[in-house]
């Protein structure tokens, strides 16, 4: 009964926000604002969330059949889970191939028309648009289970305006790659990297201990967040609260600047291609990048490992991360059956199967500790870093951050500019650009 009451209250709040005009929500975008208003059918589905039996089980609708959208390369995994789901609940599941980044746009038209999939999946940076347009249902019935089972960073990423919508599926972040032929044990701190560089570096031969894309804010967020900086407050949702030039950010950027002494090159000379070449010919011992480089490095025959990013000033390195999740279409004719499937496919077993078939890194905490997954040094290395990550903000104002901070990083690294002055200038530019975003 307690869950019934909480669910009823959450659902009521959702209906009020959906019917009250989501256009003022900072998480929205022009596409979301122009989306069709939620229909009576979607509102009825939200209202139906309160109709849960007292024994706290969810009962799928009689005669329910489900459609799931997913990318072509994920189809095999979804087919296997669909077969298991149908065998257990006697609910047929159809799969349609729609690439994840395209699903919110397609749902904007197909949802109200009644031809959208019942369950969809997309990256967390599309959540604000989908939620503000009333396209998806809150993850209400399984909220407690979802929050308990998955890493906090993943749960935060699939939450919008304090409401949990997603059922986490997989996660992505970057980590430290190290050549095992050159580095026996991955360094625990950036101080360890500096120490290692004293015996490894040879600038005359362009040989360095560590190189990464020093001008790319995505990879350098570690020097902001690890020491107390942040992009936007309230888990990335409050654009009026910018923490990119606070005391913590300045402290971290001083550490960033100090690394120029072990990597005395211009930031523009550290492109992804240059880094890959040097990592392959062993003139580079370590780099910081993401799982998308694993295949390239394997094809080049590099004997590498992946580990969490070393600590910065004694603090765990906090990276940017992305989260994919399952969501229930608010216009579905079968909201209970859809909730059941979303929870089923996002379970520990589902996430481990996704990993075994596609290499997706699980968000589920127990799955991360599973012996099979732990034995995979590369994937488990990313998972260990994800625990200390923050979801990249998904509000429109994030688009105004990249260029000013990128310019500040270049000034700090290449011109030895005072970090505080460079960051203050960047934040001023972000604030001015954001004014236009919110008009």
TrEMBL record:
Record CDD domains: PBP2_Maltose_binding_like
GO terms assigned for molecular function: carbohydrate transmembrane transporter activity; maltose binding
Biased segments, Low complexity type: 26-56
Stored InterPro entries: Maltose/Cyclodextrin-bd, SBP
Record keyword NAD present: no
Subcellular location(s) per record: Cell membrane
One GO BP: maltose transport
Segments for region (Disordered): 26-57
Record has Hydrolase as a keyword: no
Domain of life: Bacteria
Pfam families on file: SBP_bac_8
Predominant location category: membrane
GO cellular component, one term: ATP-binding cassette (ABC) transporter complex, substrate-binding subunit-containing
Membrane topology annotation: Lipid-anchor
Signal peptide positions on this chain: 1-18
UniProt keyword list: Cell membrane, Lipoprotein, Membrane, Signal, Sugar transport, Transport
Similarity section: Belongs to the bacterial solute-binding protein 1 family.
UniProt-recorded name of the protein: Maltodextrin-binding protein
Organism: Paenibacillus catalpae
């Amino acid at each position: 009964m307690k869950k019934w009451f909480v669910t009823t209250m959450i659902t009521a709040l959702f209906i009020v926000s959906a019917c009250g005009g989501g256009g003022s929500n900072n998480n929205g975008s022009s596409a979301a604002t122009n989306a069709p208003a939620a229909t009576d059918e979607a509102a009825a589905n939200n209202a139906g969330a309160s109709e849960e039996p007292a024994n706290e089980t969810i009962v799928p609708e009689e005669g329910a059949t489900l459609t799931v959208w997913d990318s072509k390369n994920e189809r095999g995994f979804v087919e296997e889970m669909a077969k298991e789901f149908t065998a257990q609940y006697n609910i047929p599941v159809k799969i349609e191939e729609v690439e994840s980044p395209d699903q919110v746009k397609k749902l904007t038209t197909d949802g109200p028309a009644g031809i959208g999939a019942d369950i969809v999946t997309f990256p967390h940076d599309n959540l604000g648009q989908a939620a503000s347009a009333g396209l998806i249902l809150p993850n209400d019935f399984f909220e407690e289970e979802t929050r308990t089972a998955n890493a906090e960073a993943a749960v935060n990423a699939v939450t919008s305006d304090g409401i949990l919508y997603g059922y986490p599926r997989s996660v992505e972040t970057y980590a430290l790659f190290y050549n095992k032929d050159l580095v026996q044990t991955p360094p625990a701190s950036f101080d360890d990297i500096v120490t290692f560089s004293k015996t490894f570096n040879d600038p005359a031969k362009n040989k360095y201990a560590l190189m990464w894309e020093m001008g790319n804010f995505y990879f350098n967020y570690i020097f902001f967040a690890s020491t107390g900086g942040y992009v936007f407050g309230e888990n990335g949702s409050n654009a009026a609260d910018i923490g990119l030039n606070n005391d913590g950010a300045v402290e971290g950027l001083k550490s960033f600047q100090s690394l120029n002494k072990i990597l005395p090159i211009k930031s523009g000379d550290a492109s992804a291609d240059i880094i890959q070449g040097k990592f392959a010919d062993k003139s580079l011992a370590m780099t910081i990048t993401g799982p998308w480089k694993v295949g390239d490095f394997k094809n080049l025959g590099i004997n590498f490992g992946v580990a969490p990013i070393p600590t910065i000033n004694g603090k765990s390195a906090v990276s940017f991360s992305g989260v994919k999740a399952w969501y229930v279409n608010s216009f579905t004719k079968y909201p209970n059956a859809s909730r059941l499937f979303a929870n089923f496919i996002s379970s520990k077993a589902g996430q481990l199967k996704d990993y075994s078939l596609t290499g997706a890194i699980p968000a589920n905490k127990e799955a991360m500790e599973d012996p099979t997954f732990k034995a995979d040094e590369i994937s488990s290395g990313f998972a260990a870093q994800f625990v200390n990550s923050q979801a990249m903000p998904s509000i429109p104002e994030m688009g105004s951050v990249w260029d000013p901070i990128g310019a500040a990083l270049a000034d700090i690294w290449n011109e030895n500019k005072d970090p505080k002055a460079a960051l203050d200038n960047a934040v001023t530019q972000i604030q001015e650009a954001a004014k236009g975003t919110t008009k």
